[in-house]
Design goal:
6 helices; about 75% helix
Length: about 140
């Protein structure tokens, strides 16, 4: 079994990490209220909490899983990783964000930034994995 999917996942994860950090900074500038919500320890853990490091590795985990699915499951079909991710976006993450908005004490603005970031993540990872898989 080829392990090329690991390299593709790590490259895609790194790209997603950079893009996510840039969009987070952009949202903080555009929506200062969202930044204040993130600092609310009644809703979120403090950044110094060791469990918060998951946010640093999440792009890599997400990308590695998608790369594995593309390499080992989708390769035998005509479905691209991009099509798979954009289609799945409207099932799981979108519903999850609506659940977060309904169950957590967060603003619609914060939920919207999560929705946009998740859509960007699915878009970037799908295109990157497809591109790298065809090299």
């Amino acid at each position: 079994m080829s392990l090329h999917w690991i390299l593709n996942g790590l490259i895609s994860g790194f790209l997603l990490f950079i893009i996510t950090k840039l969009t987070d900074k952009l949202f903080q500038i555009l929506f200062p209220r969202v930044q204040r919500e993130y600092c609310n320890t009644h809703i979120f853990r403090e950044l110094k909490d060791p469990r918060m490091t998951y946010f640093l590795i999440h792009p890599f985990i997400f990308s590695l899983i998608v790369s594995f699915i593309k390499s080992n499951i989708l390769n035998s079909t005509s479905i691209s990783a991009f099509t798979f991710l954009i289609s799945s976006f409207f099932v799981s993450p979108l519903l999850g964000i609506f659940m977060d908005f309904g169950c957590l004490k967060i603003s619609f603005q914060m939920a919207s930034t999560w929705w946009i970031n998740t859509l960007i993540a699915h878009f970037v990872v799908g295109l990157t994995i497809d591109y790298l898989s065809n090299l």
